[in-house]
Structures
1.
Amino acid sequence: MKNKEKILIIDDDEGICKTLSLILENEGYSVETANTGKEALEKSKTKTYNVALLDIRLPDIEGTKLLKALPEGTPRMIKIMVTGYPQLGNAVEALNLGADAYLMKPVYPGDLIKTIEEKLEAQKKAETMTEEKIAVFLEARTQKLLEDLG
């Protein structure tokens, strides 16, 4: 079972939201959905998500624009574009704007879970490295303060 990492699915297709939610909840993730960019932004203002799955075409905003609008939390939210409109231009733009991965619909459960797990592992490593850097900094700073006092 996972540590209840939180995933936000942003897609205007209710069927896709339900299907992906069932797959991910079955894997132990905590899942919420949003059907518009506005709803996704509202939810992400009050909650922290480990992962966002973004449809590239939403009724109120392009998914690539939503990529930049979603807040950066701690840990940094992993953003995975999911599209039924695969175009090289979309993929390049999404990756240049900060997408961590790009999947095409229909999304195969095994591919989705593997991608999420790989990205979460990288997220955990980055978080651990940050904590280690802070610890080293604090230790060096404390040592300097002690030397200055002594």
2.
Amino acid sequence: MRTLERKPAIAGGKPVREKNRYLVFGEPALGDAEIAEVVETLRSGWIGTGPRVARFARDFASYSGAPHAVAVSSCTAALHLAMRASDIGPGDEVITTALTFCATANAVLHTGATPVLVDCDAASLNLDPAGVEAAITPRTRAIVPVHFAGRLCDMTALRGIAQRHGLLVIEDCAHAIETLDADGRHAGTLGELGAFSFYATKNVSTGEGGMLTTSNSALAERLKIAALHGMSVDAWKRFSDEGYRHYEVVEAGFKYNMTDLQAALGIHQLARVELNLARREAIWRRYDEAFADLALELPPGAAPGTRHARHLYTLRVEAGRCLLPRDGFLKALHAEGIGAGVHYRSLTEHAFYRETLRLEPEACPVALDAGQRIFSIPLSPALGEDDVADVIEAVRRVSLAHAAY
């Protein structure tokens, strides 16, 4: 570990990284194979939804063990389609966690249903099954567990609750592409539907993009149609070398399709997903060792017998031991040339959800507390050894400069 003889940059000392070497949070690890595939896609003349999207969906189904995978434009689109295809709508309630990205709740609202926000478990920051059980009403239709940071929710408990009450389980797997349960089954195959994200910062990135997984063949077909305007035949099939085919609009669908330009990235990102996970696991171990003595709470590891996707390395400023509030910590890291993020503030802190759902911030106290103290540091496999060392030095420098002891 590097020495800490320099003063923190916010106190006027030399930063860990100069401005021209600023370490951006969440940089994707893109290789030559992705670049070559994108170029070949451009040269092919087929840049919309076509053969590469079909290949990426097949590859993802094979990787995840899901019988069916449907590629779409985002995880938000995937969640919305999952609920629409499950006939969730006005008058229905969908239970999910308060500690998540706004897309989880927004997808419910887009159907006309009501998101019911439940607190998270203090240790894992995943959806608390006891809170779910207490929140069920006659209007409840589904549970949406979010595998926070890549750590598997207590799916045994949540599925048991769903079965007892006749509810759907729609997994939000935005962080959980590589996540496995104790039986080796992938997140996204443990409920009726799984929704994945390939946003720029995700473990598999297509810039923007998402995927739906399901074991229900009829549902998968409906999802494909709903994702492209409700048309019975997609563009690749309409304009292929087999000749033009007419389509029928069978429902009022959406413009949620993925493009071949995006899939060109995803094909090769997915091919390296296990190699990249091993790199993130190695960085995670270095962080755990380097930060063990600081006034910071380290992120939980995997639940026993499961595999953690290691999407986010989330630290929490330790109340009483660190004199710097979370936002001050972020500002200090920025001054040191290290980018960081907040995943997430509790949805109950946002005025829109407070007003729309008639909630107080204190309605989910664990999520509220975590959302005020948590921050994420770089964990991308694109990080070199010097990058990791710089992150460690910056976090240690800021923490030690503001420790209460």
